[in-house]
Design a protein that fits this description.
This protein has seven helices and nine strands, in the order αβαββαβαβαβαβββα. By secondary structure, it is an alpha/beta fold. It has two domains: 36 residues; 199 residues, Glycosidases (TIM Barrel), CATH 3.20.20.80.
Length: 240
Amino acid sequence: MSGDVANMAGRALRGIAFALIVSGTFAAAGYWYFKAFSPDRQEYPVRGIDVSHHQGKIDWRRVAADDVAFAVIKATEGGDHVDDTFATNLGEARAAGLVVGAYHFFTFCRPGADQAQNFLNVVPRSQPMLPPVVDIEFGGNCPRRLTPEELRTELNAFLGPVEAQFGKPAIIYLIGEAVDLYEAVMPTRERWVRSLVLHPGNEKWLYWQYHNRGRVDGIEGAVDLNVLQGTPSRLIELAR
């Protein structure tokens, strides 16, 4: 009996080891697939990034040389916060030849009109820019949760003056649990969707953020990667 038990134990251990090897192989394959994923460039030829102070000092000329055509740069958050790298990033990205735009992180603890004023105080409008972007998400936001009706009111108070000053409709970035709560009250605008290493499933978007741990020459560490729905001429048209 002791020999049988030993044999059974040996077979069990070999089975466990085999299972661990298989699961490790699949995990490694999944990691490398995630790391290397990029949408088909024949279908989506225009790639861009979105950045903030989290990316630190950026060498924009190296970024531009690494198949990056546009950058959407964080400008403001809430009613008074300004990203301290915005002006530098905007100027240097434009000088490197990228098409540039700005985004605002929309908070639930300040009136939409105050947030619009903050954004307009910071973002210049004397040169071509991509449409302004408003980022609505729970991650990093204040604890308060607006009702859908409250969100619609405050968002319209933001969009009204911003769109009037820029002369073009804004783009809405709505992700995570905020989609479930607020999708039904979103105004009709172009959308920026987030679907990591998976196609969004439809073409009802302008920007697709496909990676949140991407690598681009000129940036130390991870950066969000995006593609435009359209051609390079569409990108230029958006910036007029």
